[in-house]
Design goal:
With about 775 residues, the chain is of the alpha+beta class. About 50% of the residues lie in helices and about 15% in strands.
Amino acid sequence: MASPAADRPAADYSAAEPVPEPGERARHWDIRARLSSMLDGRIDAAERFLDAHPFERGLWLVVAFAAGIVLWVALPFRPDWIAALLALGAIAILGLLTVNAETRPHLRLAVAGVAIMVAAGEVTIWTRSTLVGQPGIARPQVSALSGVVLERREEPAKARARLVLRVTLEALPDPVRVRVNLPYDKDPGEVTEGARIALRARLMPPAAPMLPGAYDFARRAWFDGLAATGTVLGDVRVIARSDRDTTLRSLQRSLAEHVRARLGGSSGTIAAAFASGDRGAIATADEDAMRDAGLTHLLSISGLHVSALVGAVYWLVARLLALVPWVALRIRVPLAAALAGALAGLGYTLLTGAEVPTIRSCIGALLVLGALALGRDPLSMRMVAVGGFIVMLFWPDAVLGPSFQMSFAAVIAIIAFHSAGPVRSFLAGEHHGPVVRAARSLMMLLATGVVIELALMPIGLFHFHRAGVYGSLANVIAIPLTTFVTMPLIGMALLLDLTGLGGPVWWLVGKSLDLLLALAHFVASQPGAVTAMPPFEAWSYVLFVGGMLWLALWAGKVRLLGVLPAGLAVTAMVLTPTPDLLITGDGHHVGIANEGPDLIVLRMGRGDYMRDNLLELAGMEGNLRRLDEWPGARCNDDFCAAVVQRGDRRFTLLMARSRNYIDDMALAAACERADIVVADRRLPASCRPRMLKADRSYLAQTGGISVDLASGRIRTVAETQGQHGWYRWPEPHLRFHDMQRRDAIRTAPGSQNVVGEAPAPSAQER
């Protein structure tokens, strides 16, 4: 019997690896030794760096926790989430087991601690998503609803109230929360929290981003537990009145109505927002002016308002108690004042609706009061880190929103700037009188405003695609005016109203708010007051945030290294090209940019919502212009053909305007001559444009898209969503089988047959 070696083909022997000679084996070991030595050298260098630059471990651990939250949202699929947790666990274990605690203590704690906190952040938001996430309804529907009113918010500026109801929907097994808009002319009264009502409403699924980079309401609704939003149709019937005599929401509404009754006009609506958090009555023009002037943060109850109230109560109580020697000698005045301030902050937070930004600000104010009561430094990075960690622990999804990011960025920027060595030296310098002190204070106020604006502008551009350029200068006046004049006057007026003597003080409140609004309108009307930018890549934003955190959290000259990634990120943001085409996920709206100051659109849409979103996502400040009025396009009732020039190439676009049946051969011929075809219906397989066929089937897979014609880059909404529960992917059997409406071909006399006449570019143009 032959041995296996005898049966083996000769080729097997020729393919076998040669046995290395002793000298060659020695060279392999030498390379390994060098690599091991280089690795040890890098590790020792990292340990020396950490040892030479003392830092607050807790601050970076909180940053790592936030990074874990962002990581979970950024990773698209469930296997990725699990793989990330396993990898982080392995890194933590290896760091604890393999890094020597005696020779490399800083590196050991850094590696293990960061890995554990990143994993903890990922687990926290994954857990919250599982516990509170609410899938939306599958498609638009008109439903008869019967349920309990959980919340009512007034929006007088839009002549409606916004209701949150708990109802049972046919497609969902358990009761869910839905939000509907109730016009005032259909409000029967007594529709308050706790009432049971019946109504008909047109409901919509929570909307995914309209285009890449747009606001993701579906994600917000998922964490808020909303299954649908909509509008009331017809009359509302009150089945049972509320059995709650008084609720926080009713107190909030009563306070807002009282303020508006005492102070009319625009100043009254702003005063109501400051006192109760009710922004529903603010006129659109005033809100736009505040936004473009960089003063929108004053309208939402957040750190400024809570801090102003708590600080005023603390100062007032401390001064009053100090005036009574018997009391001052028997109790700790700072502790009593801090307790009074804390109670005032908690009451104000509950009265204004206990929104997450207000809760976050209240937590920060309570930490500051605790530090004052204990004799500690009230403004430190540790306090910011503790407040941020508490918020992220209970509301991890808040990290993704602009409110969390902008408020913490502002506080971190202030503390980091004032803790820098040159600034401390400037403030500690000798003062030569009140004039010099006033000049220094003014200079520091201006410098602080500029620093805050530099830190916040990229955040605002990332979320809103526009930012006020002169916000730092406007805030130099607006913040002291609001903090030291308007807010105390509102509090004094409300107290005097108990005795009916608040009238003169309300007059002063009105004058201060008239000055604030005049400032906002003046700044917003200046040339170049607003900068707009199209959505930029997420990596550049993350790089900017990382650079700024490095700049803020390190001490000494090493912190300046953060300028490099932040500067690189800002450069990438500025160089972001404006997309040439914007196509919404339903294919109904198309925008053509880079053709002058106006955005060319296929349809104008209803209201300002579509207009504002298209302009913001195009990074433009102009107006909309209809495609059929643009010289570069030819349209009939069914299609528009347009030719755009990018560099040395012309692109032919074909866009559907109706769902009428078109002869397949004519449509196929027109598609063949076009580079890109867009339609809000499914097009037949015979339609084959040269670059892209963005019909209903394609857009169902991608969501809204933006196209850069010069590079051929296509960004989609779907590429940012993954398997997260708030994004509804199309069912497979619905993807390619929509039935298009088959009406008669339009053959009106004199109409242009754009489908049959779309120009074909020459070979040179292609």
